[in-house]
Amino acid sequence: MNSQEFREIGKATIDLIADYHDNIRNRNVLPSVEPGYLLKLLPEDAPEEPEDHQNVLKDFCETIMPGITHWQSPQFHAYFPTGQSFASMIGSILSDGLGVIGITWNASPACTELEVVTMNWLGKLLGLPEEFLNCSEGPGGGIIQGSASEATLVCLLAAKDKKIRQLLENDPTLDEDQTKNKFVAYTSDQCNSSVEKAGVLGSMKMRLLKSDNNGQLRAQTLKDAFEEDKAKGLIPCYFVANLGTTGICAFDLIYEIGPICQEEGVWLHVDAAYAGAAFICPEYRHLMKGIEYADSFDMNAHKWLLVNFDCSAMWVKNSYDLINAFDVQRIYLDDVKTAAKVPDYRHWQMPLGRRFRSLKLWTVIKMYGAEGLRKHIRDQISLAQYFAKLVQRDERFVVEPEPSMALVCFRLVNGDKITRDLLDNLTKKKELFMVGCTYRERFVIRFVICSRFTNKEDVETSWNIIKEEADQLIPEKMNAKSHAISAFDQLGTIGIYEKSK
Amino acid sequence: MNSQEFREIGKATIDLIADYHDNIRNRNVLPSVEPGYLLKLLPEDAPEEPEDHQNVLKDFCETIMPGITHWQSPQFHAYFPTGQSFASMIGSILSDGLGVIGITWNASPACTELEVVTMNWLGKLLGLPEEFLNCSEGPGGGIIQGSASEATLVCLLAAKDKKIRQLLENDPTLDEDQTKNKFVAYTSDQCNSSVEKAGVLGSMKMRLLKSDNNGQLRAQTLKDAFEEDKAKGLIPCYFVANLGTTGICAFDLIYEIGPICQEEGVWLHVDAAYAGAAFICPEYRHLMKGIEYADSFDMNAHKWLLVNFDCSAMWVKNSYDLINAFDVQRIYLDDVKTAAKVPDYRHWQMPLGRRFRSLKLWTVIKMYGAEGLRKHIRDQISLAQYFAKLVQRDERFVVEPEPSMALVCFRLVNGDKITRDLLDNLTKKKELFMVGCTYRERFVIRFVICSRFTNKEDVETSWNIIKEEADQLIPEKMNAKSHAISAFDQLGTIGIYEKSK
């Protein structure tokens, strides 16, 4: 393909994607294919000769598209959102067009430096303490990792390295391997599976401590676990706090837990993969009260902040902890100090290579502006609250627990089985997509506002689909609450989400 | 940005990138900026209001572009290539446009299945044994990882898990932690730094064994290391063979080493990050003779195979080894068997999330065709051989060792210092970019054909720049060899690289 052909096919691809988004409401959110559908459709061998370019786009529409679950559909309410925006795509095209790798500063100075700049921007927008930022005097700084999974593992490995160095300083005769085997990591039983996996990958026992009735891990529970393990001769090393759990989006109380970690010399990592984005709105920052106790903080800009995967934004208070753990060259600390303002990011992460990922963060921040991003978060939370009100007005349903961020959990009052049936039937219908979880031993359905396209009418559409399916399972009692849909105007002011954004 | 604005700005971005490539020869390959240049240029805080979209592209050209090292420039001869092509960009735009995450099959069936299909295609193109492929009857299969670093670490962790399970089967009373501490990994001293780092990250001692005079690790060296360690009570666990070392692109002899690993029950991982791409041409497959002994094989399609970073293609003979190591859900083996043809890739990798990366591999294979990809490899090797001939005709220079793939190492006969000076002076001129390495204790300059745009004239341009700089250091002796440039037509047939591809 020469550059003239690229101009043509590239623009046709831009139109294809724009059309896809313009007409996304015409598609079922879930596809109607069986496992193996594409293996049967596509040839077993690669083509020998190049195919006509237009044909590739046609193949995409005819073979790939039918097997897509439409995460950007307004009726996608499963998991948490995955970031996508036109602004992000512009950044990605620029990044792919340059095709540079930022293995060192001189391998492409702008690649390293734009990451520093945008991570300062984002860190300030989130209200992170100064010491986490690259622009502070100290050794703190931000870096883009591939995923929250990666960030959790990177910090676990750094915590392990830091702890063993501290212990060896006190007692150089220590058996390093045997001591490391005694290290223990902690998190709550509400953690994402990737946190548990970090323990497996990083060879550290990971204890999933029991959360309370509200899905929060309490300080006393953590303290007891530390004491229990120390009594066994084990060494507490790493703790992952969840700001916004995967199930019900509960928030651990950092201000309660932080001092305990500090006292014990345990690395406190904050996993705010989804909900962290909300901290760009000052009214939600109380949920990260005590953040100054954290050693590291991670949020996925590629979840709720309109940046395409992968862009996991991680900050550490002390980047030397990463460099000491990951730099196989063991460069002199003097060099590191000089480099502090222009970090050698390859020593802050697991792989050697790195894409120019900050470009998409940059285009998103510039094209939305801080206010545009805050509006996105606030609108989505408003829409979730609107959905919760619709559910609450139908007495066959219970909203439980209280909605958190853009997540609403609900169930049928008639029990777990019928709630599961409702979800199963809805999934089979393929018109909207939700997943379930457990709250206080009850099965609840999670409804998340995910797509940036979702507006008030879409929420009503989703609710009507749910209600209709519930009607099949439980005939609706005729009472005031059941007429929720016809009473929209009485619900008071909610943020209006612009369709065209 | 609404979809209409995206159509406009998206197309303007396509033109910007096409223009960039059309005019890439007008730029110095290396930028003229000092560390911190961008930190000074850009505002310290994110903009509050959205910026005009056109302005973002203008800012890109004015602030980012001056800080770019142009990896796709025909005069970029450093490291190894990083993949970039218009075909790959089309795949990326489609992937970003869909914005789906393939955490499970049903999270987007096509995302999992296209990866299966394209990895079968690529595995067959490379001539990998059937048992590595998803389409085989057995438990083998291919997956796209983020980088060769990640693949090396993933397999190290799987090897560790497999070994401990085997040992525990024989003796369930074993102390698991203490036994794991005895595991040792091996590679040659020519390995990429990421292999050494995998040992650090995966908590396994990694021994860098001495390679021979040709940069190859010999079977006897490995055997001796095994014996030595076993005598100390240690347990050989993992070996990384290098097919194409980072320095001089040497090839370990798998057929020699494989049987020794097999006998010892050591996991044999083959790191063919760069050179692996050449195996799509049958004439280079002799370099992977013995590949049937490998447990895992990795090559970066994002290096020499025109796919944009990240697309590291990894195959394993037994995917259960990965699932056993990484699946925190510990699902029943029966499920795994059913899923074998449609794998749950999240259990084959470290992170939970996964982008739709196979789309760009798919567009590249379809738009180039297998023959187009082979032509790319062959043309680049021919160009490297052409460069070698130019150097050899100048008696001030020595080409050493023999060129391998698209890499030519050379030095001035007058010694290391003057060779270093030559490289330093050339780097300061910024017109071409090469890096050095050590071969048989001599400093050599590495010249790699990297860009897909590089043609015969570009190679001549690069050589003339080198020659000119050498003239400043050593006056050229007037002899027949020195007139190489004027004798092109006598060099015989070499592959002609089409400018317009």
Automatic annotation (TrEMBL), chains A, B:
Molecular function via GO: aromatic-L-amino-acid decarboxylase activity; pyridoxal phosphate binding
GO terms for biological process, alphabetical: amino acid metabolic process; carboxylic acid metabolic process; catecholamine metabolic process
GO CC field: cytoplasm
Recorded superkingdom: Eukaryota
Keyword Lyase: yes
Modified residues (N6-(pyridoxal phosphate)lysine): K303
Essential cofactor(s): pyridoxal 5'-phosphate
Transmembrane segments: none
Keyword tags: Lyase, Pyridoxal phosphate
InterPro entries to which the protein is assigned, alphabetical: Aromatic_deC, PyrdxlP-dep_de-COase, PyrdxlP-dep_Trfase, PyrdxlP-dep_Trfase_major, PyrdxlP-dep_Trfase_small, Pyridoxal-P_BS
Pfam families the UniProt entry points to: Pyridoxal_deC
PANTHER family, sorted: 3,4-DIHYDROXYPHENYLACETALDEHYDE SYNTHASE (PTHR11999:SF60), GROUP II PYRIDOXAL-5-PHOSPHATE DECARBOXYLASE (PTHR11999)
Family, similarity comment: Belongs to the group II decarboxylase family.
Name of this chain's protein: Aromatic-L-amino-acid decarboxylase like protein
Organism name: Danaus plexippus plexippus
